[in-house]
Structures are given as structure tokens and as C-alpha cells.
Amino acid sequence: MIKFEKPEMVALPKKELSRLLSAPEGCLKIYLYGYLHDSADMQKIMGDLGMEKSAFLDCLDYLEQGGYLSIDVTSDTTLRYAAAENEHPLAQEVYPDAQFNGLLQSLFTDRELNFRDLKAFYECTAVFGLPKNVVLMLAEYCIATHKRGNHLPSSYITQKAKEWAKQGIDSVEKAEERMNADSEAAAGAKEVLRLMGIRYRDPSEAETKLFEKWKNEWGMELPAIRSAMGELTKTGNPSMKYLDSILERLYSQKLTGSSQISEHFSASEKTDSAIKKLFYALSVPNHVVTAELREKYTKLCRMGFDEETMLFACRMASGNNKHSFSAMENLLYGWHEKQLTTLADIRAYEEKQAALLEKAKVMLSAIAIERRPTPQDIRLYTRFRSEYGYADEVILFAAELAQASANPIAALTAIMNRWHESGVKTLEEAKLANERFRGNARKADYEERQYTQEDEDRRIREALRSIEDMIHDDFADI
């Protein structure tokens, strides 16, 4: 039973009211509940407020720590809406269970328990619901595990009591199970520290909790943890926290057994070695291999590319003065879109592209343009060569004719289109067609010349539109 002792009226400063409103959910409800009731059973309070036991205890602790109320367990548990007492009566008068007090004092040996100490232990029974025999085991456990031994602060006892209450430890058997588990976790954490080369201290409580999480929540036994510790060599400052990040990645991949983890890291070593070879081919030695790079490499392997093909892509990218992993990826993805995954097919394709590049370069040079051919230039050459069926000598002859034009590429396109429409096939036919065109131009009268000029302008416009269409197609491919 919990009693509520409070004044008829409460007045809170604005600052305190604001702090109470921002407190954990449930604190304000408990605080106001006490003003509406004189007493109530803890189970009824939790039922009325719709709260779990752990949340209820957390809120009580917050309200007490914040000074909104004090908890008195002298007889019945009382929540007093007032500041904590400035003076305490003799502990033996307030907590009269002499046998319980004596057993507690025997555990603390040379430390004489005062009012505050006994208050903490009586709260374990009254507030957290732990039986007194369980509280005695808790006291023994706290003395054994805390770095200050029997001079540990009473707040540590309260903290552990709250943890045990949340875990439902309400019997000697459950307490023994909890203590044995904690002992095993501490021993395991100590062994992990030893494997790290840390032998001068015991594990902290946080480190012990990490080991407990690995073992009980993630199902990783010490051999599995040991299998993952090789990764610690990659950092200059190994720690339990860093190891936790490694084990978390493994757990997310459902790798929890020793053999699974060993096989995983063995495969990772092979992957890392292969990635380092790729960076060497990219002229970037000593590049750090990251988890992201491993994922990208694995994806490329699944796409059907082997190591030799990737190395070929790296050398090609490096030859183009591009030395990043993404440059190599772009080449591979481009080939994959063309359904090219084997090195033989890719080499054949690239040799063909190189030949087209050179042919397009010669075509540009013939119209007095000295630059590297663009994809549009290559597409134009491919149209003349493959679609129209003209030999290189015909294309170069047309380029010489277009050289003097203000827009030589448009003029070249217009000439090639005119010949294609006229059925011209060979160089001799092209020369005759050019002579006829020039002769007709000289003999035609003004109207005919005007018509011919208009016709020529139309052809140039059509050529320009054709080039624009090719540019649009290229950007659409990108």
C-alpha cells in the first residue's frame, strides 16, 4: 500500500512546472494522482494510469531525484509532497527490523551503516518489491562487483535494485541465476580485455554489459567473439566499443557462429586483396578498403565481371587520366548495358570503337577540324559508313568539298545526304555528281540559281536538324 501525504494546495514555480511537463511520460500523472487519492495499492495505481512496473518505478525515481516528493518507507510506503528531511532520527528507531539490519551490517563489516544506507535497502523492499532475502543477496553482489567494495554509494544499490525489479528477480533462485550470469559476463569481458592485451584492470560495468549483450541477446559465444577480434588490428586503439561495432555488423548479417565469422573474414581478406589490385591498376596504391567498396566489388562480381575484366577497366580508366573506383565502375556498367561481360567481347568492342574513333578523327581532319571526335562525330561517320554504305574515300572527298563552308560539318552532312538520295555509290559517281552540280550552277539563270540556292539552304537546314537529332539521342542515352 502506498500512502500520499500532501498539503491541501500545491504551488509550483513556473520553471518547476515547465520541468515537470517535460519529464518522462507518466511523471505528471503520478504526481497529480497522489493529490486525488489518500492511498492506493501499487498495482491499482499502475492499472489506473495504464503503466508498466518498470515505467512506474522510473517515474518515481525521477520525481524523487527532482525534489517533487520524497519516499518514506518507515512503515507503509509514503510519498510525501515536500522536501527531503533535513534531520534524520536514529536509523534503528526508524528501521526497527534488527535482524535484517544486523545481517546488512555484517556484510559491510567495518563500514557502519547510517540512516541513508538503511533507507536505500528498505526502499528495495517497499518501492521495488524485492524480498528481504533477495535484498541481502543484492547487497552482497553489489559489494563484490563495485570497485569501492563495501564503501560503494547507496545510489548504486538503488540502481541495481531497480534493474532487478524490472527483470522480475523476486526470489533467491532468480537472484542466483542473475548473479551467475553477471559473473560469467564479467569473466568473459575480462578474457576479451586480455585478448586485447589489457591485463592491468578488470572490465567496467559498461564493458561487462556489452559482453552480456553479445552472448545473451546476439547469441555469440566467446569463440565467435574471438574469431572477430582479428579486425581490431585495423585500428590503433582497440576497445570493447570498437569490437561492439564489428560484432553488430556481423549480427546484422546473421553471422553469429565461430565458423561463420571465420569464413566471412577469410572471404573478406580475398575481397580486400582483389580491391587493392584494382586500385594499383588505377595508379592509386595503398588505398584503404572500406565496407562500401566491398559491397560495390561484390555487386560487380554478381553482374558477371571477373577480376581480369575489372583490371582491364581500371587500366583503361587510368589511361584516360581517371583514377577513381567510380571511373572503373562507369565503364563496367556501360558494357553491362550492352550485354558485354566477358573480357574477349569487351576487347573486341573497344577495338571496334577505337577504330571508329580514328576514322572519325580523319574525317574531321579532312574538313580542317583538329580535335578529338565527340560521340556525335562518331555517330555521323557511322551513318555515312554503315547506313549509307560509302567507302572512306567517298566520305573524305565530300569532306574536302565541305571544308570551305562556314559550317563544314553541316555542309558535309548535306552533301552526303544529297548523294545518298541521288543513288551515288562510288568515288567516280561522286565526282561526276559534283561536276554536274557545279555545271548546273554555272548555266542556270537567275531564277534557277535562286531556286538552287534555296534548295541548298534547305539541304543544310535538314543536315543541321539531323545533327541535332543525333545530339538529342546521345543525351537520351546518357
Overall description:
- By secondary structure, the chain is mainly alpha-helical.
- The chain is built from 23 helices and four strands.
- The protein has helices spanning about 15-20, 25-35, 40-50, 55-65, 90-95, 100-110, 115-125, 130-145, 155-165, 170-195, 205-215, 220-230, 240-250, 260-280, 290-300, 305-320, 325-335, 345-365, 375-385, 390-400, 410-420, 425-445, 445-475; strands spanning about 1-5, 40, 70, 75-80.
- Strands 2-1-4-3 form a four-stranded mixed beta sheet.
- Strand 3 (about 70) and strand 4 (about 75-80) form a beta hairpin.
- Helix 14 (about 260-280) crosses helix 15 (about 290-300) and helix 18 crosses helix 19.
- The longest helix has about 30 residues, at about 445-475.
- The model is unreliable at about 85-90 and about 445-450 (pLDDT under 50).
SSE order and pairing:
Elements: E1 2-5, H1 14-21, H2 27-36, E2 39-40, H3 42-49, H4 53-65, E3 70-72, E4 77-80, H5 91-94, H6 98-108, H7 115-126, H8 132-145, H9 154-166, H10 172-195, H11 205-217, H12 222-228, H13 240-252, H14 258-281, H15 291-302, H16 307-319, H17 325-337, H18 343-366, H19 375-387, H20 392-402, H21 408-422, H22 427-443, H23 446-477
Parallel strand pairs: 1-4
Antiparallel strand pairs: 1-2, 3-4
Helix pairs in contact: 6-8, 7-9, 8-9, 8-10, 10-11, 12-14, 14-15, 14-16, 16-17, 18-19, 18-20, 19-23, 20-21, 21-23
